[in-house]
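step 3/5: co-fold with NAP
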Amino acid sequence: MGVAPLAAAGRRPVAVVTGGARRLGRHLCLSLGARGYDVVCLYRASGEDALALVSELSAGGAGARALQVDVSSRASVAAVFADIGRHEGRVDLLVNNVGNYNPQDVTALDPDVWDATIGANLSGAYYCCYHALSLMPDGGQIVSIGMAGLEGIRANRRGADYYVSKTGLLVLTRALAAGYADRQIRVNMISPGQLENSIDLPSPDQMGDTVPLARAGTLEDVAQALHYLLDASYVTGANIDVAGGYRL
Ligand SMILES: NC(=O)c1ccc[n+]([C@@H]2O[C@H](COP(=O)([O-])OP(=O)(O)OC[C@H]3O[C@@H](n4cnc5c(N)ncnc54)[C@H](OP(=O)(O)O)[C@@H]3O)[C@@H](O)[C@H]2O)c1
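step 4/5: write tokens
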């Protein structure tokens, strides 16, 4: 039996956000709560931040829960979505926000780092898509967070594992968009450039060297793109760079 349409369920739509307790994920959770979603914040280690977020969302009128998961573990992801199936009973929107960046030169790239990055950023996103789709009604959505500059598949000596994971996420996004279009499920990607909280942000006077708009992106810049996609009923399989023209 499929997941009931929202009107029949008489409920707010449910958004699940991975890596939702802090930084960009937290901002997206709050933005979705304000838009009318009940929010399930998935976190790994930031339990206190996740509980504080749940309080803030609840105070704003949203239903909210925080659940611990390691997205790189198939069993952990299966267990958390089974919990969501029992409690929320549906996933109207999945945001794959987890994205670990531990850059090393490719000539010194440790296989453990490779496995961890691919496991969390790519396999983890797929595990979440797999389980979310079984709880998703027709017309649901998946949005994955990538990294701008993907289309060129440019050689990056530092962080090859990260760029492989994000490029793979784009390929997965496009395949799922094609595969689930018959159910009007839309699958898209948002690719930030360098956000204001980036760990390797250039100095303000050097920002214009790689970013034509010459400023770091804000968390709200990314949220704006998410809200665009939520409304854009004819957009699927797309990647939106939110990057000030990064490396055009
Ligand atoms: N910040 C930027 O400048 C920038 C630029 C381009 C793209 N992006 C992308 O935007 C997204 C968010 O960036 P961010 O900087 O806000 O991310 P972040 O702080 O590095 O990570 C987000 C969260 O991911 C969670 N996480 C990591 N591994 C996990 C695992 N195995 N299982 C479950 N959760 C896990 C962590 O949760 P806990 O804290 O609970 O452990 C962490 O808080 C990422 O996909 C990133 O690649 C960011």
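step 5/5: annotate
The helical segments are 6-9, 23-35, 47-59, 74-87, 111-134, 160-180, 207-210, 219-231.
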